């Protein structure tokens, strides 16, 4: 099975650590490794480095090569322009459809945490076996919800359709992105909803057929790029065609239009967390809800339920803080209530055109 790890996002909600020049997936957020490195390492030893592809922005290819040097260089796919996730997934799918059209492929993301690595690998292998049996399907890997999360997508599943290696694979019913509070609480209690991680297993041939069906203009351009892959015309064709693609989310292009009868869902507790924002990182790492999460040289007094990250040699001291976020880098110190983290993205956008633009 081939594994595709997507590592092209900017990640403004983790500013000031995450910047345009070096987004969150390349920074040391958990321990001494980036989430990209963790994403590659958690797949070992069941999946080898030669089975991995990385999709990223062209500007970040050298960073990926330095952090995942075991991945063959030709399998690090650089996008010459940011055209959203629909074209990004399509590009890798078109390439793999030429290389190995019916070999199962898993789509994963580089800015997540997965604590139950062995279980995760077993699920991927089991999903791959099912897809090998029936190449014209998509299997979604989801997380059993830990709470009524309003900030994530949810996936609704029905009855068990297949049983494989001790796992239940159920029918797909529906998707819902960021439900309101009451709806999220109902989902959490239902027993038939899970967090939608954006992880799935399918074959390149089948997924590409869905691009042809639902986004024919995008498909046409992907075919031009595919024809040039592994030839001297590839980079020229990529730079000419890819920037012309409409910006479209993968959900809008493909996911919302998939035939549910060709899809399965597995929901297990793989210890998954989306650490796209500071409060999500705290939830992923905290030992208990009111405990602090720290990194670097810090000294806390009467501080609770806070995240204090210090990336400098300077000592950071906090006194009488509760429910706070403090992130100290060489050129920016951020202090905010955890409940105000949603304002970070807009703040970073507002830096454009100002004297602080280089800090974005």
Automatic annotation (TrEMBL):
- Do you know which Pfam families this protein is assigned to? ManC_GMP_beta-helix (PF22640), NTP_transferase (PF00483)
Q: Name one GO molecular function term.
A: mannose-1-phosphate guanylyltransferase (GTP) activity
UniProt keyword Nucleotidyltransferase present: yes
InterPro entries per record: ManC/GMP-like_b-helix, Mannose-6P_isomerase_type2, NTP_transferase_dom, Nucleotide-diphossugar_trans
Cite the MannoseP isomerase/GMP-like beta-helix domain residue spans from the record: 296-351
Q: Which GO terms describe its biological process?
A: GDP-mannose biosynthetic process
**Nucleotidyl transferase domain spans which residues?**
4-289
The UniProt keyword set, sorted, is: Nucleotidyltransferase, Transferase
Say which domain of life the source belongs to.
Bacteria
PANTHER family cross-referenced by the UniProt entry: MANNOSE-1-PHOSPHATE GUANYLYLTRANSFERASE
Q: What is this protein called?
A: Mannose-1-phosphate guanylyltransferase (GDP)
Q: Which organism is it from?
A: Candidatus Gottesmanbacteria bacterium GW2011_GWA1_43_11
């Amino acid at each position: 099975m081939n594994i595709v790890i997507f590592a092209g996002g900017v990640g403004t909600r983790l500013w000031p650590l995450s910047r345009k020049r070096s987004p969150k997936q390349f920074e040391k957020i958990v321990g001494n490794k980036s989430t990209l490195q963790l994403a590659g390492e958690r797949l070992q030893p069941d999946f080898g480095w030669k089975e991995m592809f990385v999709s990223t922005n062209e500007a970040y290819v050298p960073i990926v090569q330095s952090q995942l040097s075991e991945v063959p260089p030709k399998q690090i796919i650089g996008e010459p322009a940011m055209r959203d996730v629909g074209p990004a997934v399509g590009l890798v799918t078109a390439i793999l459809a030429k290389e190995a059209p019916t070999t199962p492929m898993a789509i994963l993301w580089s800015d997540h945490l997965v604590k139950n690595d062995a279980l995760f690998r077993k699920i991927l292998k089991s999903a791959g076996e099912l897809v090998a049996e029936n190449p014209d399907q998509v299997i979604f890997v989801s997380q059993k919800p830990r709470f009524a999360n309003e900030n994530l997508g949810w996936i609704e599943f029905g009855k068990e359709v297949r049983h494989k290696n001790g796992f239940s694979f159920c029918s797909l019913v529906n998707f819902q992105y960021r439900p309101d509070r009451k709806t999220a609480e109902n989902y959490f209690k239902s027993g038939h909803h899970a967090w939608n991680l954006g992880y799935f297993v399918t074959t390149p041939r089948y997924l590409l057929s869905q691009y042809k069906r639902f986004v024919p203009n995008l498909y046409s351009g992907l075919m031009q790029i595919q024809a040039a892959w592994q030839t001297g015309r590839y980079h020229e064709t990529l730079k000419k065609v890819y920037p012309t693609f409409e910006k479209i989310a993968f959900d809008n292009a493909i996911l919302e239009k998939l035939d549910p009868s060709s899809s399965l869902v597995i929901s297990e507790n793989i210890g998954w967390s989306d650490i796209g924002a500071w409060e999500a990182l705290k939830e992923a790492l905290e030992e208990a809800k009111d405990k602090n999460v720290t990194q670097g040289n810090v000294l806390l007094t009467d501080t609770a339920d806070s995240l204090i990250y210090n990336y400098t040699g300077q000592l950071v001291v906090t006194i009488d803080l509760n429910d706070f976020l403090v992130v100290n880098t060489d050129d920016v110190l951020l202090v905010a209530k955890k409940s105000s983290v949603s304002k970070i993205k807009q703040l970073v956008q507002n830096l454009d055109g100002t004297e602080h633009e280089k800090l974005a």
